[in-house]
Amino acid sequence: MIKRLLLAAILTSLSWAGFADTDTTATLKGSVNASSGKVTIVYEPTGLTKTGSIGSDGNFSFSFLPVGGPYTVTVTSDGYKPATAEDIYLAIYQNTPLRFSLASAGAMEEVVVTGTKIADAQGFGTGTTLDRQAIEAVPTVERSIADYARMDPRVNINAASSRSLEISAMGANNRFNDFQIDGVSFNDPFGLNANGFGTMRNPVSMDFIDQIAVDLTPYDVTRGNATGASISVVTKSGSNEFDGSIYYTKRDESQVGDQPNGNAFPPFSEDITSVTLSGPIIKDTLFFFLGYEEFNREEPYNYGPKGSGALNESEAATAAIFQTIADIAQNTYGFDPGGFENLSFPETHKEYTGKLTYNLNDYNRFELNYSNSKDSLAQGVNLNTFENTIYTKPPEITRYSATWYGDLTDQLRVKAKYTNYELKEDDSSAGGTFPEVRVTYDDGMGNSDDIYLGGEKYRAVNFINVTSDFFTLKFDYDMGEHLLTAGLDYEKSTVVNEFLARYNGEVRFDSIADFAAGNWAYLRFQVPTAGLNEVGSTAANFDVKKTTLYAQDVWSVNSDLTLQFGLRWDKLKTPTSPAVNPAFETAYGFTNAQQFDYSVLQPRFSFELALPPSINLIESATLRGGIGLFLGRFPNVWLGNAYSRPGPLSDYPSFTNTDPAIGPMPAAGAYADSPRFFWLLNPSSTYTIAPPGSSSSSQYVDPDFEGPSSWRTNLAVDMWLAGDYQVSVEVNHDQVNKALAYEDPGLTKTGTLADGRGTYSTSGSLGLTNTNDGRATAFTFSVRKTFFDSLNVMAAYTHTSADDVWDLTSSQAESSYGYQQRWDGDHLGATTSQYEIEHRFIATMDYTIQLFGNNDTRFALVFNRQSGEPYSVTFDNGRNSITGASGFYGGYDLAYIPSGVSDPNVQFANAAAAQNIMQYIDGSNLAAYKGTYVPRDAFRDPWQTRLDLRITQEIRFPQFAEAIGENRAIIYFDIVNLGNLLDSGSGIVKRHDFNTSAQIITNGTTSDGKFIVTGIDEDDSLKTESDVGQSSWQMRLGFKYEF
Fold it and tell me: H or E element: which one contains 513?
């Protein structure tokens, strides 16, 4: 039989494939037209060799293999010529089909079968995998994992950077993603960061990564935490060759285009150094990989006073106003608030990693991993802020893991793994314990600003320590047609969180004059009931234990059909209860001291079927899909609220209008360290700390609470068309089984407003509970084609429709509850999710040519166009909810749209205002809702368009090959937002803060419930994103030397 490339035949055969377990190893399974014999596989980089038997049904499998390759697979059987498959590469979470048709012993030639590329492999579910070659083709300035995750058309990233970056899949909350490095959870273990990572920026250097996988329906029961995107990376390992790399890049404002307002981008600096080294310690036996990366950046703060030329200027406050406030703070209160113009935020990141791989023999392999990262990120609080209100987040993460992979018999294989993970973070603000002060300035012409100084209100006491231990035991048993899997995962996390919101106090002044006089309009603070200095007494300190059992059967029915059946059982429990608040139980009839204790059984089924060609145009096709229940992860901080705010441990009052019990904020000198903690330390204050149990206010967990879970399903057709076009059509649907929600057990309706919504009083108690409402559907079409063996082109479109009930945008229960856009109390139904991107187009081009010598020149383009995020139109009623409920935050009541100047539900400020307001409404998209309220997230931010370019030039040095082996230099030239370089009006990113636009200005309601409408704010909260140059072109020039 002639030697030949069997790529198309392999794709149509679809015998079982390579899929990864939670530790991102791979399983290779194939079939042979023989009923006995041996199969030998060799992992060429390390010489790892394994030998197994062909079953009586002709099937074979190998488990717990390193991903990547190349592998060489050799099959021998009596009466047949040996057959060899070369260049086999195994991808995480994808099938790498392999089938042997042996020639009889009398045939003249040996058969050689060549395996598929990673990009050609498929799996049951939905996702995208990038190997190292694909990773190198993605333009990036941030060098963030998000830049690669967005290669899946169902995944969206916002335009932010570092901890503010958000990754969302199919309209799901960005905090529901699961991120793993070498099978170890690297999620933010407490849950404060929008990016979902424990680190401030990328949790692992891109130079350490070998493969990236993004999955939305990981049907394999070994995988959990999947109600968002499941993102996994496999880091590089050592081999029998010594390899290394040194990467360096530096950039500043000269490599960023002008801001959208025409001003030059503010000065900043950034540099990255990355080093890797790997190789053998003992050839074919012991290998190492080492990596180090350092990142430093001074990030400009693109906000400033009116007239300053900053990208985002204050509406009313000029530099003179800021200076007046600074003088009062310094001269009256003895506090230097720092500067207020041309501010910058330093950010640093250092990361170390090491991996040892030990091939004891052909049956046992061990792996040791270590990593440590230290970050420091300074951040501002609000638009109008002084320098010393900036706060710093300095997390440190350390991870150890040890893994054993063993072949107990030809059929039974085992993996055992232990991991220890620890996060420490002690936040601080430059303002220390000086109260956070907010001064409102109104210029008398309808423009106002809130200006902040002092210590940031959430940083005076804010310490986190999370220590987690993970243990995994997994068995694979090969029965030929059936590959059985069973296993156990156990996780224990100890969470310590010392957090007292407003420990230093939040003080609001309605004017500069009030600030000078100390006459505050609002004061809120939190103090331990054990005493001012006993902050440790309020710490949340609890364990979270999670146990997982699973079993699965992968059944190779025949060469065309593979079925996968599985069950996964997760149990989560917190062994200790929060502190008891007897007053809460008296008020509501159940205790606040509820433990988290629930379990979920998750059935899953998936299939992959090779379809016979139906028309000449289709050369081969695969139908794949499945359905399953997936229990998701959610931030531990949402559990921790019940432990940190049970009620008896702290007093958390609020006061208004310079309450005489406390008196004005005193000037410096009134007492030692005045005015810090003036509500307790000022001699004129009569406030005393409330004793434990004097308030029924508690945060708690619904006794029937269950973690978030969704039924997820997909159905897809993958086709090879004539001309080597690869076309996929896929539909995904998620249906909420349990979603998270908040409730106020003491919410009381006190009246009814003119449009039918109620007025309410809130109790201050909040419970974490469930809703069964919510869904998402995504339709995706993609096509890819390779031209001339050197030009790869891909285009995809996804339409997503996603509904949810709660946005869950905050770490604190109080904020998540208060910042929820609502019409009538807690009567919330599922409406458009603020994370939904309705339309997304993505196209890529990757072209390689050798312009001189044997050196590759590579051009890569990524084009993205997508609809904007949804946002809600609300009332602007100042800091108070128009319904009167203190637990509902001002600016989050969905707006009623007047039907006309004579609308009986509205009282306009005057006739002129009525005419102007209705003229604006009639000419805007609000007109569709006249006479009713605007539903949540009814409108869309502007579309976003971005074109990115990467040019890579390698320069080989063959003259050094004899001494150090193959070596080369690589020059990376990246331009993101190339369209903005060509047209300054292109590539602008605009969005509404917190997906809310308080456009209808009100001054409360009349005694009979009519809305007093005074004006319109057409672009409330709409801002141009450019903190890190999102709305400008940016470039990066990087240099790497590899050997």
Answer: helix 512-517
pLDDT given at position 108: 52
d(CA 627, CA 603): 8
Which residues, including other chains, have CB under 8 Å from residue 702's CB and lie 6 or more apart? 594, 743, 767, 768, 769, 770
**Rounded Cα distance, 825 and 892, in Å:** 11
The structure tokens listed for 212 are 């990236």
Give the C-alpha distances (Å, rounded to integers) separating 683 from 468, 528, 670, 671, 686: 46, 20, 8, 8, 8
pLDDT at 43: 93
Amino acid found at 950: R
CATH H-level, domain 7-122: superfamily: Carboxypeptidase-like, regulatory domain (2.60.40.1120)
Contact 113/100 with Cβ under 8 angstroms? yes
Contacts of 1000 (CB under 8 A, 6+ apart): 873, 874, 875, 876, 895, 896, 897, 1013, 1016
Alpha-carbon distance values, 414 to 28, 54, 254, 364, 377 (Å): 15, 20, 55, 10, 42
362: number of Cβ within 10 Å: 12
Nearest C-alpha neighbor of 588 from the set 524, 647, 538, 654: 647
Cα 830 to the center of its chain, rounded Å:
22
Phi/psi for 463 (5° steps) reads -125, 135
Q: Mean pLDDT, to the nearest integer, of 455-482?
A: 95
User: Cα–Cα distance between 202 and 373 in angstroms, integer?
Assistant: 10
Contact 693, 650 (CB under 8 A): no
Q: Residue 711, exposed/middle/buried by CB under 10 A (0-12, 13-18, 19+)?
A: middle
Matching residue, tokens 């059984």: 601
How confident is the model at residue 895, as a pLDDT?
A: 96
Antiparallel, parallel or unpaired: β 1022-1024 and 990-992: antiparallel
Give the integer Cα–Cα distance in Å for 569 and 1000: 49
pTM for the whole structure: 0.91
Q: How far apart are CA 749 and CA 629, in angstroms?
A: 38
- Give domain limits for the chain: 7-122, 871-1042
Residue type for 250, please? K
Distance CA 958, CA 960 (A): 5
> Phi-psi region for residue 584, left (φ > 0), alpha (ψ -120 to 50) or beta?
alpha
For 569, residues 6+ apart whose C-beta sits below 8 A from its C-beta are 548, 549, 550, 599, 600, 601, 602
pLDDT at 119 over 50: no
Question: Whole-angstrom Cα distance, residue 819 to residue 891?
Answer: 9
What are 709-729's pLDDT values in tens digits? 999 999 999 999 988 999 999
Taking alpha carbons only, the member of 800, 803, 870 closest to residue 830 is 803
- For the stretch 539-597, pLDDT in tens is 999 999 999 999 999 999 988 999 999 999 999 999 999 999 999 999 999 999 999 89
Which residues, 6+ apart, have CB-to-CB distance to 855 below 8 Å?
A: 953, 954, 955, 956, 968
pLDDT at residue 304 greater than cutoff 60: yes
CA 975 to chain centre: 24
| Residue positions counted in the chain | 1043
CB neighbour burial string for 726-738, b if at least 16 within 10 angstroms, e if fewer: bbbebebbbbbbb
Give the number of other Cβ atoms within 10 Å of residue 444's Cβ. 7
How many Å is the Cα radius of gyration of the chain? Answer: 31
Q: Which DSSP string corresponds to 181-198?
A: ETTEE-B-SS---TTSBS
Burial category of 904 from C-beta neighbours within 10 Å (exposed 0-12, middle 13-18, buried 19 and up)? exposed
> In this structure, what token pair is assigned to residue 790?
């050197």
158/140 Cα distance (integer angstroms): 15
C-alpha distance across the termini of the chain, in Å: 40
| The pLDDT of residue 2 | 29
> How far is it, in rounded angstroms, from Cα 843 to Cα 865?
9
Q: Which residue in this structure is represented by tokens 């364990």?
A: 543
Give 788's contacts (C-beta < 8 A, 6+ positions apart): none
